[in-house]
Amino acid sequence: MLYRLEGIVIRAMDYGETNKIITLCTQTHGKMGVMVRGAKKLKSRHGSLTQPFTYGIFSFFRGGSGLGTLNDAEIYESNHKLREDLVLAAHGAYACELIDRALQDEDTGSFWFEQLQAFLTGMREGKDPEVMMRLFEMKMLQASGYGPELDICSASRRPVEGDALISPRLGGVLSVPFRAADPYAVPVSARTLSLLRVFARLDLRRLGNVDVKPETKAELKIVMEALMREHIGINLKSKRFLDQLDQYGFDK
């Protein structure tokens, strides 16, 4: 069967001496694997199609549920500027690896494709990659059924105002007087909690240029890492590399 799908390359691996296999996050057919024959040859017209973050239309033949074989493709956006910047490439790789691990083959729906496209576009336009990454993680939690409850205290069931705590185990926010409900809850300032609530309601495609203070970014990272670790629980190479960049001051 011949497919012609809009997609983004989220993973590429060598196959044999001259070929590559790419994994696409498609708009209509979820995640699909495609063999690109001869992609490693110096004069291959398909070599550029296998680069991470490449967005375009991919035409390929596929029989049954196996790999497709690329017939032709048209690149809409190569996103080469993202690959040339260490920090942007690291954030892009993390977003792609999250989708690759979370999305099942041929899951229907365009949500992940649209969020990833918005994420890559935002980085290309100069938006803060850290802020976008935290929003992307929030969307992943929500799509997986683990979006945190950020308005009502998980213990008292009353509205929360001001400084508070986030309990990944309880799946939401705790008022300070109820911190004993989860000794491992993460403290969060009123400013950061307000931004988390915005993230819970906001689509990546609607995110404008947001100026977030370094201390708020640091809180956001701690909170989202705790939520992701509790509910998603996947250990990604790209995340470890991002942490190393942060440790040595590159991710600032």
TrEMBL record:
Residues 1-78 form the DNA replication/recombination mediator RecO N-terminal domain. Gene3D superfamilies: Nucleic acid-binding proteins (2.40.50.140), Recombination protein O, C-terminal domain (1.20.1440.120). It comes from the Bacteria. SUPFAM superfamilies: ArfGap/RecO-like zinc finger, Nucleic acid-binding proteins. The keyword Disulfide bond does not apply. The keyword Cytoplasm does not apply. GO terms for cellular component: bacterial nucleoid. It holds the Pfam family RecO_C. One of its GO terms (biological process) is double-strand break repair. Keywords: DNA damage, DNA recombination, DNA repair. Signal peptide: none annotated. PANTHER family: DNA REPAIR PROTEIN RECO. Belongs to the RecO family. Involved in DNA repair and RecF pathway recombination. This is DNA repair protein RecO.
